[in-house]
Design goal:
Blueprint (H helix, E strand, L loop, with lengths): L1 H26 L12 E5 L7 H9 L11 H9 L4 E9 L3 E8 L2 E5 L3 E4 L4 E2 L12 E3 L5 H15 L6 E6 L5 E5 L4 E5 L3 H15 L9 E3 L7 E3 L29
Parallel strand pairs: 1-3, 4-7, 7-8, 10-11
Antiparallel strand pairs: 2-3, 4-5, 5-6, 8-9, 9-10, 11-12
Length: 259
Amino acid sequence: MRGGLILKLLAWGLALSLVVLPIVGVLNGWFAGERWPVRSLQVEAEYNHVSAEEIRAAVANHVGNGFFATKLDELQAAVAALPWVEKAEARKHWPDMILLRVTELQPVARWGANKLISADSRIFAAPGAENMQGLPRLAGPDDALANVIAFYASAQKILAGSGMTVNGVELSERGSWKLALSNGSELELGREQPEQRLQRFINVYPRLLAGHTGNFEKVDLRYSNGFAIKWPEAPASVTPPAVKKPQPAAPEPAARGVT
C-alpha cells in the first residue's frame, strides 16, 4: 500500500516535470529560442546624441535566446548604460516584437572641464562634452552642485536689467565664489555673503560707467567696505614717423669738350 503511494507520487512528479521543464527551458532560453525569436525592435528615441546603431548594438546581446527568454530589466539596463541615455523602458509585444523607449539626457550647463549637468541636476560625462558651446560653465566640488546651481540662479536675478549676464560660476575648494560674465569680465565675491556683495556692486554700477567706455576687466568684492575695479588699459597712442620731403637733385656739371 505504502509502496504504491510512493510510486504514484513519483509518477505525478515525473509528469509535472515533463510539463514544467519545457516551459522553464523556454522562458530561460535553454532551448527552442529559434522557434520564438525576436524578429522586430521598435525604438522611440530623439537621436540627438544617441544613434540607432548604438541602441541596437546594446539590445542585440539580450534578445538572442528568444522572445520569452528576453529579460527586459537587463535589456533596459544595457541601453541606459549608453552615454547620453537618461533611461530606457522596454516591453514585449506578442508574438515577436520588443518596444523600446529611450529618453536622452538634456544638458543645461557644463560642469568643470569635461562634464555636463542634466535638466534633472545630474552630473554626467559624455563624448564631446568639453566642446559644447552656448552652455553656462559651472564648477565646484561635486557634492556642492545644488549650491552652485542655486547661486547661479540668484546671480542671474540680481544682474537682471544691468545689461550683464552670468556666463559661469566657480566655487573653490575653500568656499570662495567667482562669477564670469558673458562680456568677458570677472567678479571675485569671496566666501561670505556673496549675494549681498554682488547686490552692493550692482547698486553703484551705473555711476561707475560714467567716464568709461567699454567693460571692466575684473572687480574684487572681497573687501568689507568697498571693492577694487580694474579697467582695461587705454591703447598707447602711436606717433606716425615723420616723412622726409624729397630734396632736389644737384645739377650735373657741364660736359667739357675734348681737344
